Every structure is written in C-alpha cells, then in structure tokens.
UniProtKB/TrEMBL annotation:
Entry protein name: SsrA-binding protein
GO biological process, one term: trans-translation
UniProt lineage: Bacteria, Bacteria division Kazan-3B-28
Keywords, comma-separated and alphabetical: Cytoplasm, RNA-binding
Family note: Belongs to the SmpB family.
Protein species of origin: candidate division Kazan bacterium RBG_13_50_9
Keyword flag Nuclease: no
Amino acid sequence: MIIFNRGVQFSYQLLEKFEAGIVLLGCEIKSIRNGQISIKESHARIKDGEAWLMNAHIAPYAQGVPAGYDPIRPRKLLLKKNELKRLIGKLQEQGLSLIPLSIYIKRNHAKVELGLGRGLKKHDKRAKLKEKELRRIEQRKLRGKG
C-alpha cells in the first residue's frame, strides 16, 4: 500500500532519499491503511533537532477518533541520529528542501520516503516538458514503423 506525491518529480531535482518512521495515533494508522491520506501540500522540517512532517492530511477514522483530533497536525519523524545530523547540514545549504515522496506500510509500521531536493526554476520545468514531449514523439514514430 503506497501513497505517492506525484508533483515532486516536476517541481524538484532530487539529490538524496531517506526512509523515516512516523509517530502516529492508533486511529491515524487505520486511516492510512484505508488510503485516506494526502501528502500533496506537505513538507518536512527540522525543528529543535527533530524532524517533523507538516501539513500531511490524514482523514479521521470512520469508526472513531479522539476528541479534538486535528487531521493536519505536525507528526514527528523517526530518523537515525547520524541521518538527522547530515540532513541538518545539507538543509543549511541554500535552496534545499525536504519533501515527502511517498508513504507506505512496512512490517506493520508506516514509513515515509523523504527526498532532499532543490526546487526547479520555471525555465527548467519548461525544458523538462519539452524533453518529455520529444520522447513521446520518438516513441510514436517507432511504434508506427514497427
């Protein structure tokens, strides 16, 4: 069961990938297993030496949620100490962001795949689209001749 953040490939140049655990409530893991999660507008942030997943929307579980449940609350990410130190150092470089790429279940635990990336400029995005269109045209020509 995997939820992808599809817009990332278009908006960022990914440099590295990390896997992190997520601290969740009992009803949140049930909602994730039902696929009721959105990470489209989410991002990760390092605050006070800890990694946090911000703006990830986990819908309330239908069979019951605790009183005062906030579906977009910040959720702590579980990373190894040396990974966290390396991330802190890299994020201090100008223009790098920590973006959630996907959320999946691994051995009954929810995991998030984080990408360390640099945002693309508008002209880079246009060049990427042009390249993609040229590849499509080449594929059509090859299929037409074969």
